[in-house]
Amino acid sequence: MDKVPITAPGFQKLEEELKHRQQVERKRIVEAIAEARSHGDLSENAEYHAAKEAQSHNEGRIMELESLIARAEVIDIGKLSGERIVFGATVKLIDEDTEEEKVYQIVGEPEADVHSGRVSIGSPIGKALIGKSIGDTVEVVTPGGGKSYEVVSVEFR
What we know:
Layout: E1 4-7, H1 8-37, H2 46-71, E2 72-75, E3 90-95, E4 101-107, E5 118-120, H3 124-129, E6 137-142, E7 145-155
Parallel strand pairs: 1-2, 4-5
Antiparallel strand pairs: 3-4, 3-7, 6-7
Helix pairs in contact: 1-2
């Protein structure tokens, strides 16, 4: 099994989601199935089929979360420092075409959310940034075309 790098807050969110799905969602779905069963004929019971589908989805996500947690390699960003971009770094970039400033944190796949400024280490921009330092130019090939950024700062917070 491959280890999955993840930050401590990202790991905590996975554990919280797993606990919620096991202790809250499971119970809610079982109750919904029981309620739908009480309505009689299951072959034409849309509520029953919807609840069973929700149960399947929830159990699948539980298995996925258990696997991620088992393979997680939690990295304490507070212990990292330096000028090179590595996993966990928060990086400030300037788009060389538009002069627009972007700030990204390099995180693990399970916790990536580009809208919140967290990019996966395996994403095109994550791969391009690893190993770079302040002042370096980074060329990123994305599905939308090529972009060029200058690294302005590297922090570990």
